[in-house]
UniProtKB/TrEMBL annotation:
This is Reverse transcriptase. Residues 1-43 are annotated as: Disordered.
Length: 113
C-alpha cells in the first residue's frame, strides 16, 4: 500500500512532512501511524492526532465489512436489524428497504461515519 492509497476514517491521507530547516530534496518524513493514533500535520498545516484504525471491540480494524458483519459490540443490534443473513453487498447497494435497514443500524449503533 502506498502513501497515496491510505485513507483514514475521516477521509484524510497521511502527508509527508519535512523538519523545519531541512535541506530541499532531503527525504521527507511520513506522519507516523500507530495503533493508538499518532501526531500528524495535515496538508493545510493543522495539527492533530491520527485516529486509530482499530475497532473499539479490539478484534479488527473498524472498516465497513467489520462493522456490518462481524463486530461483536453490535451483534445484538445486527441480529435485530437483520434477523436473516444478508450479504454485505445487499447492505450497501441493495434495494431501498435494505439500505434503510443499514441506515437504521448505523444510526442506532452510535457510530459516526
Amino acid at each position: 500500500m502506498t502513501l497515496g492509497d491510505r485513507i483514514d476514517s475521516n477521509g484524510a491521507r497521511p502527508v509527508r512532512i519535512h523538519q523545519a530547516g531541512a535541506a530541499p530534496g532531503s527525504a521527507p518524513q511520513r506522519s507516523p501511524p500507530s495503533a493508538t493514533g499518532g501526531p500528524f500535520i495535515s496538508s493545510c498545516g493543522a495539527r492533530g492526532r491520527v485516529p486509530s484504525p482499530m475497532c473499539s471491540c479490539g478484534e479488527a480494524e473498524q472498516d465497513t465489512a467489520h462493522i456490518l458483519r462481524d463486530c461483536r459490540s453490535h451483534q445484538v443490534l445486527r441480529e435485530e436489524i437483520w434477523p436473516l443473513p444478508e450479504s454485505l453487498h445487499n447492505k450497501l447497494y441493495g434495494p431501498v428497504a435494505a439500505l434503510q435497514r443499514t441506515t437504521n443500524y448505523i444510526s442506532r449503533s452510535g457510530l459516526q461515519v
